[in-house]
Amino acid sequence: MKLYVSVDMEGITGLVDHTHVDSGKHNYERGRAIMTDEANYVITSAFEQGCKEVVVNDSHSKMNNLLIEKLHPETQLITGDVKPFSMVQGLDDSYSGAVFVGYHARAAQKGVMSHSMIFGARNMYINDVAIGELGFNAYVAGYYGVPVIMVAGDDQAAAEAEALIPNVTTAIVKESISRSAAKSLTPVKAGQLLQQKTEEALKNKENVKPLTPPDHPLLRIEFTNYGEAEWANLMPGTEIEQGTTIVRYQAKNILEAYQAMLVMTELAMRTTFC
Fold it and tell me: Which domains does the chain have, with CATH numbers?
C-alpha cells in the first residue's frame, strides 16, 4: 500500500495566527517543529498499518517547512518551491489513498486562519461548487482515482471535508474560537488522536470514493478587489465577469484548472493596497 500525505500548516495543533506560520515571525520555529511531529504521527501509524511507501508533500507557503532530519527514516519528502502542482505535487494513480494534515477551512468561512491559497481570494468555484484548498486538492486526487481517506485540522476543516467526501475520517486537533484563536489539544494528545485516526482511515479506505472532478471544469475565482481581478485576467484565456471581481477560466480538465488557479492567484498577489 502506498500513501500520499499533504501537510499544510494552519491546521496544525496549537497554531492559531500568522506568528506561527510565517517564517519571519517569532513563533515559526516552534510551529514547524510541531508540524513535523504531527506529520510523523501519521507516517508512523501508516507504516505500522502495513503501508510500504509513504510520500509526504510539504504544502505550506514556500513548502520547505518540514524538518527532514526529524522525519521517519523511511519517508520520502517532496519539498521546496516552485512545484507545478503545489500542494498535490507528485500525486498520481499509483497511490492507494491520500491524507491531508494541518488543513484549514476555505476563504470567507469560519475557521482558524481560513483562506484559499491567498488572502485576496474570497471564493473559488469549480462549476457551481464552492471549494478551497482542501476541495481542489481532493479533486486532483480524484482525477487519478485516489480517495482522500483522512483530513486533520480544526473543526471547520473537518466539517468541510465531511461535506465534500462521504465517509472520510477526520481528526480534529483544535476547535475554532475565532480566525486567530482556538481551543487546542496538546501536541501529545493530538499525536495520539492522529495515530488512532490514521489507523481508522486505512481500515476504512474501501468505504471512501474518490472525489471525481467534472469534465471540462469551469474555474471561477472571486477576488476581494478589482485590482486583483485585473492582475489575474492577464493570464490568457481568462475573463472578468462584468460587474464583479470574479475571473473565470474554462479548463480542459481539473489539472489545467489547478494550474490556472496557481497562476491567477500568483498574479493577483502583485496587487498593492493603493
Answer: 2-114+133-207 (3.40.50.10780), 218-269 (3.30.1360.130)
- Residue-wise pLDDT for 39-72, tens only, equals 999 999 999 999 999 999 999 999 999 999 999 9
- 195 Rama sector, left if φ>0, alpha if ψ -120 to 50, beta otherwise: alpha
Cα–Cα dist 253/219, whole Å: 10
Give the Cα separation of 10 and 26 in Å (integer): 16
Q: Is the dihedral of CA 264, 265, 270, 274 positive or negative?
A: positive
**H or E element, residue 35:** helix 28-48
Rounded Cα distance between 150 and 42, Å, is 10
CA angle 28/31/35 to nearest 5° reads: 140
H or E stretch at 67 = none
Nearest CA to 246 out of 120, 156, 135, 139 is that of 120
DSSP letter string, 115-149:
-BSBTTEEEEEETTEEE-HHHHHHHHHHHTT--EE
* Residue 149 pLDDT greater than 90, yes or no: yes
Collapsing DSSP states into helix, strand and coil, what is residue 60? Answer: coil
d(CA 213, CA 12): 27
pTM of the model as a whole: 0.98
Q: Confirm or deny that 8 is annotated as ligand binding.
A: yes
Distance CA(257)–CA(127), nearest Å, equals: 11
22 is in an annotated binding site: no
Name the 3-class secondary structure at 247: strand
Catalytic residue of the set 20, 26, 72, 115:
115
Residue 115 known to be catalytic = yes
Only one residue has cell 457551481, namely: 128
60 carries a ligand binding annotation: yes
